[in-house]
Amino acid sequence: MTSLDDVDRGTPGGSLLRQYEQRRTRREQEVRNRHPRLGGLLLRVQAEPTTTSSFLSGARGEAFVAQRLMRKCGPTVELLFNRRLSARGRDGDIDVLAVTANGVHLVDVKRYLRATVRVRRSGGLLLPLKEQLLINGRDQTRLLDSVERQRQVVGGLLDAFGAPLPLHLAMCFVDADLPLVPERIGGVALLGSKGVARRMDKPGPLDAEARARLLRCLAGELPPA
Questions:
Q1: Domain annotation covers residue 122
Q2: Which residues contact 49 (CB under 8 A, 6 or more apart)?
Q3: How confident is the model at residue 110 (pLDDT cuts 50, 70, 90)?
Q4: Inside any domain, residue 2
Q5: DSSP 168-205
Q6: How many domains does the chain have?
Q7: Residue 214 is part of which domain span?
Q8: 109 near 96, Cβ under 8 Å?
Q9: pLDDT in tens, 24-79
Q10: Would you say residue 86 lies in a domain?
């Protein structure tokens, strides 16, 4: 069997954590420069702005999902984390990419504390069907745009590798209220970490050697973010 010990699996939430540290450090410097004598006290008593703390929350969400997948998934699942979509590193990244017996899985992690996640459909029959992703009742369908960009990049790589394999798309919600019956929108499954692990563990035709070759190719083309 091909060894994968030298493959850099990536750091879950690594890019979000770096952005958080950069923003936190910049804010601390600005506060201390404006208030040389009281800066330390102000930093202790004032809450971080959500524009900063949201990066830490997102990084923790990605780390939580990674830990759950590594613990719940069986030996047929090979995982990569926090991968760049391009060498420039400005086109977004992939939170979780997995090569499994049943294909390749692309997972976008979202952390929404106690938020209700639902799909609303309208139209049909005589009118075009319209689907909307609602989070706490607000239309957040735009979140699917990043999944589509990831799908295009990974799908293109699979075509270039000559590997016409199923590409499974999912948004994995952490700390959110999901429907009892799993929903899909635009070909993207809306799941929790347990649901993602179950999908990855399903049987399929890819043997260990094929999974190892494919994982190595994807890891090389999509470096850690």
A1: yes
A2: 27
A3: very high
A4: no
A5: EEEEEEEEEE--SSPEEETTEEEE-HHHHHHHHTS--S
A6: 1
A7: 14-221
A8: yes
A9: 999 989 888 988 888 788 888 888 898 899 999 999 999 999 999 999 999 999 99
A10: yes
